[in-house]
Design a protein that fits this description.
The protein is mainly α and 181 residues long. The chain has helices at 3-13, 16-38, 41-58, 68-85, 90-98, 109-128, 131-142, 147-154, 158-180. The chain is elongated and about 60 Å long.
């Protein structure tokens, strides 16, 4: 099955096999993006599941859809942002980031401590940035998307991607310096 055929089945017949194909094809990518927003594995997995449910219900309302992921990404992003906005305080969010499971392992105890401290600083710094800066940095550095993929996912021009990345990197650098001082 192809993505186009799966989309067609979903739109015309609300076919679960077509949607299952789309979920299997995009679940890892969706999880990575949700993780970048949510900051911990459990919340990211829950957000993905909820966003896929919303997409399944919504896809039949569409007349046409050329590519699934850019459309789905907006659903996932909005769902993650809504979940985050429901959190009562920034300290709750900071606590979630501090407790996240780290993906890589170090070879020595000292290396592990240094890596965790560095990772915690990066996560703390990301949490202080505007949503659009955090989003573009997650797409570029967590998902390792190129400019064209970011532009397609966010549905913005490539030049806007480059500009936003520049400003996001500058904001990140300034926030990191403030955190370290």
């Amino acid at each position: 099955m192809t993505e186009a055929k799966a989309i067609k089945l979903c739109i015309q017949r609300r076919d679960t096999a077509g949607f299952e194909y789309l979920v299997k094809h995009y679940r890892c990518q969706a999880y990575t993006h949700a993780y970048g927003f949510m900051g911990n594995p459990e919340d990211a997995a829950d957000a993905c599941q909820d966003a896929f449910k919303k997409a399944f219900v919504s896809i039949t309302r569409l007349d046409q859809l050329d590519r699934f992921y850019p459309w789905f990404y907006r659903i996932l992003k909005n769902h993650c942002l809504n979940l985050l906005s429901r959190k009562k305080t920034a300290s709750t969010h900071q606590e979630m980031l501090a407790n996240q499971t780290l993906l890589n392992t170090a070879t020595t105890p000292r290396g592990e401590v240094e890596r965790r401290e560095s990772s915690d600083r990066v996560e703390e710094t990301l949490a202080t940035l505007k949503e659009e800066f955090r989003e573009i940095l997650v797409l570029k550095y967590y998902s390792e998307f190129n400019y064209a993929q970011i532009a397609d996912t966010l549905q913005i021009p490539r030049g806007t991607v480059m500009s936003r990345l520049y400003h996001a990197r500058t904001a990140f650098k300034n926030a990191l310096e403030q955190l370290n001082s």
